[in-house]
Amino acid sequence: MKTLVQLAALCGILAMPAAQAAQFKVLLFTKTAGWHHEAVHEGVTAIQALGKLHDFEVFWTADAGRVMNDAELAKYQAVVFLLTTGDVLDDRQQAAFERYIRRGGGYVGVHSAADTEYGWPWYTKMVGHMFHIHPEVQTAVLKVEQRNFPGMERFAPRSLATDEWYEYGPPRAKLNYLLSVDESTYKPEADWGDKKGKGMGAFHPVAWYQDYDGGRAFYTGLGHLAATYRDPVFRHHLYGGIYWAATGKGFRAD
Prior knowledge:
- It is a single chain.
- By secondary structure, the chain is α/β, with parallel strands linked by helices.
- It is 28% helix and 25% strand.
- It is built from seven helices and 13 strands.
- The protein has helices spanning 2-15, 40-54, 64-67, 70-73, 91-102, 121-127, 232-247; strands at 25-29, 57-61, 78-82, 106-110, 131-133, 138-144, 158-163, 167-168, 176-182, 190-191, 196-197, 205-212, 215-220.
- A nine-stranded mixed β-sheet has the order 2-1-3-4-13-12-9-6-7.
- The radius of gyration is 20 Å and the shape is globular.
């Protein structure tokens, strides 16, 4: 009798459907070699929660030596540089990441990802604009420049947002802009002694994307404050960038 019961149990196990694979896999990279944002852990928690909500796997590390090689990068459809700063990859790791993008991989940069790897021209073109300076954190009017992109449909055409509004250098590639900030609604001036800023003028971009060197690159300048990662509209915006970078699938809001 015991043998029959065991056999029945085994048959039941074999009849169960296999666990469903996740939609895609994302490498979440948070290494800093300069300023370390307090929001890093909130950002990690938010992206892990997005993975559970939207059924994608997230592997988090700040150890470039562990993941920035051909074998490891091949496991992921997108790599998120979350609040990275400074020179975070050596020459060999940079070469592996370039090969990853050229094979069709996706890149997502969040906030200070634009304050990363200034001496790596390929990376700066992928990011699109590099950080120059910022004023104090302020509330301003965020404007939608394009709605037909994943994650953009929940933004109002104009909305109040509070962040550390980066002033960027000139574009280093042809970019598709998603969000901008209205400089007339805050004080963009900044003075760091050896570096000064007065804003970017009539058009001040905040988020954008591009096809890049065989792969895809998305960047958002939002995400300085830890509490921002608990904002459902921002989280959905972030997921939209991850989804597009990982899959290449678009979205139409109309």
